Amino acid sequence: MPDKTRLQLYIPKPQARPGEPVNFDGLVVPEAGSVRRPDPLGCEADMRDMPFSLVRVLDEGGHAVGPWAPDVSPDLLRKGLRAMLQTRLFDDKLFRLQRQGKTSFYMKSTGEEAIGAAQSLMLGQGDMCFPTYRVLSWLMARDYPLINLVNQLFSNEKDPLKGRQLPVLYSARDYGFYSLSGNLGSRFGHAVGWAMASAYRNDDKIALGYVGEGTTAEGDFHEALTFAGVYHAPAILCVTNNQWAISTFAGIANPRDTTFAAKAIGYGIPGLRVDGNDFLAVCAATQWAAERAHANLGSTLIEFFTYRAAGHSTSDDPTKYRPVDEPVHWPLGDPIVRLKTHLITIGEWDEARHDALTAELTEEINAAVREGEAVGTLGKSKPPVAEMFEGVFKEPDWRVIEQRKELGI
Amino acid sequence: MASMNMIQALNNALDITLASDPDTLIFGEDVGYFGGVFRVTDKLQEKHGLTRCFDAPISEGGIIAAAIGMGAYGLRPVVEIQFADYILPAYDQLVSEAARLRYRSGGEFWAPLTVRSPYGGGIFGGQTHSQSPEAIFAHITGLKTVIPSNPYDAKGLLIAAIECDDPVVFLEPKRIYNGPFDGRPDQAMKTWAGHKDAEVPEGHYTVPLGKAAITRPGSEVTVLAYGTMVHVALSAIEESGLDAELIDLRSIVPLDIDTIVASVKKTGRCVIVHEASRFSGFGAELSALIQERCFYHLKAPIGRVCGWDTPYPHAFEWDYFPGPARIIRALNSAMEN
User: What keywords tag this UniProt record (chain A) (predicted)?
Assistant: First the structure.
């Protein structure tokens, strides 16, 4: 018997820490237009190369190229740009307001705006998204009233969630936006169940589920994909791989030589890996997966490859665990700049219109904030305390009635 | 009326619900083609179709998550967890999602699901086929927990649970699926045949959630029990010769506090009986509520007869199970003061 080698526990490390030069070596970014587009009605077994490529449409010059270039109108692209810009400006404004103590907490989605905005515009009004806390652009693309967001963030008297929920954890049923919760991944399976229900009713609606790459390590992710695969649930299941789960780099959630999209293979559903900063690629992949779902061929797992340009939340300082200039060196760029460049390239946009839109959106956001501040910021206004006792059950039971009286209400 | 055991009564409740409400569907491990490991879903797939009653992957978290999503869509799912001992992988879904959905969404979404699960001991089930986890659900705001003790209630409570717009954990005492059990394992097995509560109407009816039943009226001491322990307590009361009032809680949440308080104020004494282990068991909540509301009527300390604070053992089944002898001791002790 040969001598046994002493074992060593392997702990993955990111390629660069604070003070070290940014290092994206080994990150393979294929040319836009270079990846094949399989027939969405084709056989899953014939698509198992897809999770290891990266679907990209917009080239360096802002041209839409290759088989994935979607058939979308300039109007839709301008709506998308508007939603992304609105999200970015809103995030910046609310981040500052948190620093002023007007809300207790905020989370930006900087750099990831293309994903929610494009998917919101590609899916139907009756479809339902099961979001993470970083998909504000879905609501922006559907013209969700800014004042509702502001009131929720201030937990004031007009908060649509009646002061019960942490800021950012919105719920907007009429806008296809399922109730958020702080628990990571626990709604991924709800998306699958919702999709199964649509199929059970012979409806034509589909569900969209989101998790971040860190959350793929939760059991819920495995459970949801098992159900999605087994029952051919008409759902689009998305992993937003923004490289960071708070301070933890993506390599802690998945071994380096595979991809998050590749997890689809084991569950028997197609996996696509898509440039998440390419608005057109997000549109195209969503359209592809929706066509497949509508044809009763079930779910698709899409990994959106992107980068969390901002801190995890207002409680986080990313300079403590990654190089300070890492975001600006991200090879896939900024989704807003890339779509803006494309629209200018095709003659459907210009700098003056962009500046005017920025000014218009800034004023809309400032007006909503002023309106919300007039109602009250955190601690200055709140819904009636009786709301604390409502909604535990459909009808309150004796315990909450008694406890409400104990509080003198 | 038909004579049914508890399995047949539950099956009948599901059959009636599937027939009357197209938004109701059933899934869980082995519930489809096979009809369930305890036969509760027997022939439902054959009768109502593949999409109405189907098999699920062995994934308790996945089952409850899918049911919550279906509920958000507008269906009324009834899912089975094969043993209550195996509900824990779905605990996060029940606690963090089903129980909170209505509250956290300001009423935009809710979870009208029913989670059926066989529970309780007395069957040599050992550690993972015997547990009584009702207290860990009772502590969760937003969940209802229901436990029947006979075929009539089982059917009526199950239909009421399914029709309820709140999430309900429906625990079925598997020891009494086939017949009442009085806690005397050395005696011959009884069936439900001839028992007054085994006469079950064939059509639709409900037993309201949140209403206890007075199984035996009495004047000297109040006994609170549910599930299998209702029968064990009744047998103990009869042997004791005391005029005890036996209350079958039926619902853990919502709790019928009025019936309990009225009884204890009348008798001045109370013994609580449950299979689950004692420390932080549901008996502790009952005891506290009674102490708060009936303090000046109490003539003796409130007694608790429970499982021991150990995992549920195999060889020591009848040393662990709170049988008639221990209940009689507690009754006599309550009467001594």
Answer: Oxidoreductase, Thiamine pyrophosphate
Residues of A in Cβ contact (< 8 Å) with B96 = 181, 183, 186
Q: What is the CATH number of domain A44-313+321-378?
A: 3.40.50.970
What the block records as the tokens of B31 is 């519930």
Which top CATH class is B213-336? alpha beta
Residues 6+ apart with CB under 8 A from A217: A253
Question: What sign does the CA torsion over A304, A305, A310, A312 have?
Answer: positive
> Does B336 participate in catalysis according to the annotation?
no
Cis amide leading into B208 (omega within 30): no
Which residues are CB-neighbours of B171 under 8 A, at least 6 positions away?
B84, B117, B118, B119, B120, B132, B133, B134, B145, B146, B147, B227
What's the rounded mean pLDDT across residues B217-237? Answer: 98
Q: Which CATH architecture has domain B2-200?
A: 3-Layer(aba) Sandwich (3.40)
Query: What ipTM was estimated for this complex?
Result: 0.97
Shortest CB distance from B108 goes to which of A173, A188, A219?
A173
Give catalytic status of residue B195 as yes or no.
no
- Number of helical (H) and strand (E) elements in chain B, helices listed first: 12, 14
d(C-alpha B170, C-alpha B302), whole Å: 27
Mean pLDDT (chain B) is: 98
Task: Dump pLDDT digits (tens) for A69-91.
Answer: 999 999 999 999 999 999 999 99
Instruction: State yes or no: pLDDT of A1 exceeds 70.
Output: no
Reported in sequence order, the residue ranges of B31-92 that DSSP labels E, i.e. its strands, are 53-55, 76-80
CB contacts < 8 A, A to B, total 139
Distance from CA of B75 to the nearest CA of A (A): 7
